[in-house]
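Progress narrative, work stream C.
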Amino acid sequence: MSFAQKTIWITGASSGIGEALANAFVQQGAKVILSGRRVEALNRVAAQAPERCLVLPFESTDYPALPEVVERAWAWNGQVDMLINNAGVSQRSLALDTHLDVYRQLIEVDYMAPLALTQWLLPKMVERRSGHLAVVSSVAGKVGTPLRSGYCGAKHAVIGYFDAIRAEVEAAYGIAVSVILPGSVHTSVAINALSADGSARGQSDPNIENGMDVNVAAEQILAGLAERQREIPIAEGIEAMALKLRVANPEQLYSLTAQEGARLAAQREAGGSLDPSNIRSD
């Protein structure tokens, strides 16, 4: 599938995977709608090809604003061929220490926001009998790992929603639905992750720093989207193994994650800082 002249809408397009995807789509001749909160950063991404980029900033959890945002996106070229729900936030805290409001925020940003935007855009795609919906979930959407209880919950939920709407619209209306499962990709995801009290963590993790280059990840995602793959794993090493174990030998996977949880619990009981160096997935 060629993306030339296709209209691609990407949320969370100001940095990380979203920015890399925007750059890759522009290079393939697509017209790209760039959404996020940081207007200056979105303008920077758009500067590579301003004639083929629309900067459409909005707060992903501002649900009353979504009808107007969707109309503006659709009106730009008279259609949206693909929506990539990429905006999100991660977590770095044990459940024992995490405030309830942090869980609410993770659910709103990582689950409710992509659901709400998709719900507003979906009827337009159904009317055209054409379109492609995608969401960036995570390996953590399939594998429960320590320090990410709320994040895992939200990413599991978003997979369930998109799997269900695929069942409703793929054969009936010709709309593709793709779930993207990144593991450790070298971005600022860990720096921006929520701590137990909801503050930004402010530092990265070794696995993220040593993770897949973001442009390589974007290339793999584009290849999967071009083939209209229903599930697109972007994982290497132990993360790829974990996805396979989740299906082939879940008991072994549970034992491995429990060992890591025990190590972190021991650090907590000793009053030391938590070392996430063995943790995998974003």
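Work stream C, second folded protein:
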Amino acid sequence: MQHLRGWVFDLDGTLTVAQHDFPAIRRELGVPADADILTFMSTLPATEYTAMKAQLDAIELRLAEQVEPAPGAVALVRQLHEEGRRLGILTRNLQSVARSTLSCLGILDCFAAEDVLGREEAAPKPSPDGIHRLLDRWQLSATEAVMVGDFRFDLDAGRAAGSHTCLILPDNPWPELADWHLPDCSALLARL
């Protein structure tokens, strides 16, 4: 991991304690229980999409006010920043919510404003679009970077971009997709 110059992080559940109750959010929005929220929304007529987007944005902003750092996340980001690594956020959330969350965690200063990508700045994961955008901006190859996240979409995006992948989760249900698997950011920091 020492050779990695670019670190792309998922936010919710990776740098923060997981707080999104997706089944409850689906119920509140009226999204079918087995559907991906963003994919479902993209199929709606424009008026319905706009109304649901406003409702989802409000839910996410409310959740951002209750954010807690994941174990070791702040120390990990600070160390990587001090070492001069390039740091980015790739989230399916809004960029404004991501920036608010990073501010609450006390690490917003570790990320260049243009390196915090939400669902409106890049195609949502599992698309590799956001990783490609960050790598282009940083002028790094995919092999010099890692996508760090807690869900399959993070790993799929990293694989599709050709970067390394690191799963931050107690168990590893996707061993074929994760180059590294650690239970939390504290363990990742210790590995560095």
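Helices lie at 22-29, 37-42, 46-64, 73-82, 95-105, 129-138, 152-161, 185-191. No further action is required on this item.
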